[in-house]
Design a protein that fits this description.
By secondary structure, this protein is an alpha+beta fold. The protein is built from 3 helices and 3 strands.
Amino acid sequence: MTLFYCIDGSRNHQGALLCVVNSHLFSNPAAPHIRTIQAAVLAAEVDQHYKDIAVIWCGDFNATHDSGVVDFLKTGTVSQFVCLYVLWMLLCLHEAG
């Protein structure tokens, strides 16, 4: 994450802050849940530290427009299917030891 401070001399934007997040999410096609978790963790960090600052989020999401991670980035929520999938994967990992 990078924080920019506006010094362009504009009375409307002088001193304004902008946070730019550049991410490269996990690329394994069989792990869309990992990308969603990565985005959620990063979003929580941004929200905690830059709550009242404009944010531009860019990068390689390794996802299609109809994926869970893109839905999360657009809406801030995930579908029940994505939640159930993540829980199922965590349960499988736990049982595997």
